[in-house]
Amino acid sequence: MTKELDHGRTNAAHGSRIDAYVDRYAARATGMVASEIRALFAVASRPEVVSLAGGMPYVTALPLDLVGELVADLVATRGSVALQYGSGQGDPALREQICEVMRMEGIEAGADDVVVTVGSQQALDLITRIFIDPGDVVLAEGPSYVGALGTFSAYQAKVVHVAMDDQGLIPESLAQTIYALQTAGSRIKFLYTIPTFQNPAGVTLNEVRRRQVLEICQRAGILVVEDNPYGLLGFDGEPLRALRADDAEGVVYLGSFSKTLAPGFRVGWALAPHAVRDKLVLAMESAVLSHSTFTQLAVGQYLTTQPWREQIKAFRELYRERRDALLGALEVLMPDGCTWTRPGGGFFVWMTLPEGLNSKAILPRAVAERVAFVPGTGFYSDGGGARHMRLSYCYPEPDRIREGVRRLAGVIEQELQLRDTFGTGSVPGHAGVDTPGPDLA
Amino acid sequence: MTKELDHGRTNAAHGSRIDAYVDRYAARATGMVASEIRALFAVASRPEVVSLAGGMPYVTALPLDLVGELVADLVATRGSVALQYGSGQGDPALREQICEVMRMEGIEAGADDVVVTVGSQQALDLITRIFIDPGDVVLAEGPSYVGALGTFSAYQAKVVHVAMDDQGLIPESLAQTIYALQTAGSRIKFLYTIPTFQNPAGVTLNEVRRRQVLEICQRAGILVVEDNPYGLLGFDGEPLRALRADDAEGVVYLGSFSKTLAPGFRVGWALAPHAVRDKLVLAMESAVLSHSTFTQLAVGQYLTTQPWREQIKAFRELYRERRDALLGALEVLMPDGCTWTRPGGGFFVWMTLPEGLNSKAILPRAVAERVAFVPGTGFYSDGGGARHMRLSYCYPEPDRIREGVRRLAGVIEQELQLRDTFGTGSVPGHAGVDTPGPDLA
């Protein structure tokens, strides 16, 4: 039928890949372009490649048969609820259980202040949606989580990075940055921080600094968004006290079952002051009506029937062994001039290359040598990070990690030879944004 | 700890319900306020109330034990995939199956152009996100789906309603509206339409008009967003041909398993031209990283192992019986002056009250008499709909539907007596937006 009509709009586009809508998109969408780096990662997902790139938890460690039984039981006995629409705020019983989980980090909160979200990524999206007008400033550690930077960018926020060291965010830098921005008239809407086992840097904000960061933000009237997916995955001692535990009105806390149970359920949450919580629920309904009752009840059933604290301990042991494998191999194999962080938990090591080397330029060669990582530039919104890379130890088994490091060390050795011969290592082929896809976030 | 600090920001808010962030929200969030109508619906969910308000499908009709078995099997045999992160675009096998479902409505499409979303509500949200700048115009039927109006409003779109009659959208009105808006310099971004068994009106766009609507939008260069959750739930004959079946480049099609299987999985989708699809995937990743692999594979497993076409037939018979119960009871019981639509499928009847009556004002009295409906004003963004109400027949059993109509007819009789005595029926107590929650959408 369409052939008979006058296609003022679609003549050029019919059957072609030209975008007929190119001049119709919203301003926020014009920057949404897929990066060249993605094609490389498609190659990197082949089994012969050791991927130190992905942030995927090792879900195979779960008792899959038991999880299968509990979801079957859930559908058979409570199917008419589990398969139905739920409330925008999320299942009340699960919200109670979430409060129990948060209590492990010193948080005292009521289920009424929790909003269940489609992973904590959606909590980030909704917080940004309700607070950010185009041009507003978000403060974030430099480097910071690539998925958060993508969301802030989608709402046209201006991200300003605050320096960190191996004890996390530097309070003096935070105070100076805020002062400079506020003096210049910028509207700072919130500080986005991953204080514990940071992604990608693997560092943790120490206790003294936690108090200082809260105090600085309170004085400046800046909301703190505390993203804490890895807090229960520490390798030493008890979980750290969350920022939210010491400031109920100034902190929005984001949590997730993606790393302590499984990302396939997409169950995360936000804990927020009452008024913010109200807005989050309305934004949630506008975005997806309600989250999947089925997955929410499945997570609730898991928490009720399975020894979840023991499972988290098992995950901790597993990831500690892998971290040790990665750090040990780096120590033995990496050429002089490379440095890296030593995470006390979580999934990631942040490595700094010798001067003159560029991690994005090295990636194609590394993939050819069957090892992958995420270049550092993805974790900065200001072009920083070229000499850095994120190495994940969460997914490959220890022997594979060591083999991956061996391959990567070989590639870096070659790059150093290039540099010493020509004055520089490989240079990146393009300067675009290099946001990896969901499995690498 | 916080007590020792200077709380420039939180003095007023600590321990109180005052919103300390009231001057910090984004412009788009200022209109996000919960409506008074919600408190009423909380009451309406009590078992003694017959709810003709909710749009909840009757999932109890599903073979729950079999669904339980298939999800157990899924976790036990493919758990390491089902519980892991997935791709932003959605599971490739499920996208193939979605194409098979859409073929029932004459759509020929490749899985590569499908994006799986968190219900079709999220598809709506993402489409709006990539196309709408504040002030842009969205055309929509008057009345239209309350959840869509909420999303458009959240992105600060201006919704302009186009008149419809019992054959759906009126092409002449569409053409005139477009002409007037474009002449006035408005940027019309898309037409949002539910052509088949419309929510809330229950009417269906006839075949001649389908061609006309497509032609008008093509000539004017306006994208059509075809929302089709009910298309397979027709009571007579074969499914209608979708608009998308006749225009692959000018239509974004939104589909859902919420009504043909179950809303608790939150699996919907968008089928879009290539370039728009690319933007949708990037917006999806920014919003939630990826949808739940677990629920996607569960839906895929259901489609693979269960007689899903037969199940849809069973749903059709069930809903046809309930529609007949509702229409029959309205015919017998409603006072003169009430009129209503006669849906050929889907979930909803749209009723018009006699002059001088206001459906929002009647709602509290109706709830006191143990029957609930959704007032018409929620389905208009311009204050229209006061004399209308949406009656859903999808959830209550036929006898309950008849009882609900009996109660409602009694309330309307009383209102008519009020009107005849005082010149008007009850008047609404407030003039706010009355958006109901997710289970009523």
TrEMBL record, chains A, B:
Its cofactor is pyridoxal 5'-phosphate. Residues 76-408 form the Aminotransferase class I/classII large domain. Keywords: Aminotransferase, Pyridoxal phosphate, Transferase. It holds the Pfam family Aminotran_1_2. The keyword Hydrolase does not apply. Gene3D superfamilies: Aspartate Aminotransferase, domain 1, Type I PLP-dependent aspartate aminotransferase-like (Major domain). Residues 422-441 are annotated as: Disordered. PANTHER family: AMINOTRANSFERASE, KYNURENINE_ALPHA-AMINOADIPATE AMINOTRANSFERASE, MITOCHONDRIAL. This is GntR family transcriptional regulator. It comes from Microbispora corallina.
